[in-house]
Amino acid sequence: MTIRVKLTALFALLFVVLAGVLVTTAYLFVASATTPEAQQAERQQLLEETLEEQGITEPGTPDGGPMPSGRPDDAVAQVLDRIAEQARQNVLDDLLTRSLVAFAFAALVAVGLAWWLAGRVLRPIDEISHAASTLSERTLDRRLPEDGPDDEFMRLRRAFNGMLARLEAAFDARQRFAADASHELRTPLAVLRASADNVLSSARPSRQATELAREVAQQVGRADSLMTSLLTLARADDVIHTREPLDLADVAAEVVSEASPRATEASVAIDLDLADAPVLGDPVLVERLVANLVDNALRYNSGADGWVRCRVWSAQGRAFVEVSNSGPRLASADIPALFERFSRGDQRSEVAGHGLGLPIVARVAQVHGGVVDAWPGEQGGLSVRVSLPARPDGEA
After folding, report:
1. In sequence order, which residues have a C-beta less than 8 Å from that of residue 34 and are 6 or more positions away?
2. pLDDT grade for 21, boundaries at 50, 70 and 90
3. How far apart, in Å, do the first and last CA atoms of the chain sit?
4. Chain mean position to CA 67
5. Range of the domain at 261
6. Cα–Cα dist 389/371, whole Å
7. Rounded average pLDDT over 234-250
8. pLDDT classification of 244: cutoffs 50, 70, 90
9. Are residues 285 and 258 in the same domain?
């Protein structure tokens, strides 16, 4: 049950208990006040006053006491007593019936008022919950209004706004760090690459220098690729900077076109099956998502006579991109580990990867509201399908 339901039940139960006590007390008071014993003295006094006003002396014994019982009119008195008792019982029954009807009506009203009151009391909590559920890295600059009484809810708002301010500062600091790291790391890598190229392009480099230069160039390339992947992952973790209209078919066609020379060199055939798949997203991240899928399919392939299939389509409000490849057989239980950062499966010693391709795919899909599915091929290799929300018609 929600807190509102619990508060409503608590308020309604409290009202029912208090109203029940009130009805029971009123009934008992009326019942005790209308008994013949309680009303005998009052009736006797009222009879005497009435007879005295009429100038009639109440008959009694010679010594002034009450008339003894056994008079002829005792039967009439008994009938009158029974009538009075029946009238009293009718009054009590009517009081009880009316009280129960009023109690039931008031209980219904109390439940409605309790529901409204609980909602009004919890409204600040609902506002904070709504604000928290709509927050993302792009909306950390939003704040809850701090107008109103200085009560517990106001202190909660201030604490929530303070948390948002700290989160915003932390995300800004991480974004600045990523930009600074990109600038500072690319410069020495570019210098190392240029030095290696100079050695390799010199007139007569020594064999040892040539091998060293090639090793440096290879490691610089790996470091540059790793840094690019880490910065892409940081960008996805940090914020989706833009939301632009894209078509996964266009992105896939461009990625495959750039990868074709590499595929030809590795004797891997690429098969494209493209249909319109419009989405809204960060162009850099979406391009990196598709590029990582294709790069992974080429990197972990069976070599000669291998193949890669890239299919793009849309259906039921979703846009899909699916990349399959030939390659070593995989067990279904081993696939989740491939989406962990720096995990390269059993081929880490054979393939020059850094274990961030599929984790980047999963993270980019997640920040775009997408889903990633992967399964082993029947004859080996891996199939990865990414589903993203399709762009509504006419939205730009």
Report:
1. 88, 91, 92
2. confident
3. 41
4. 87
5. 240-389
6. 9
7. 73
8. confident
9. yes
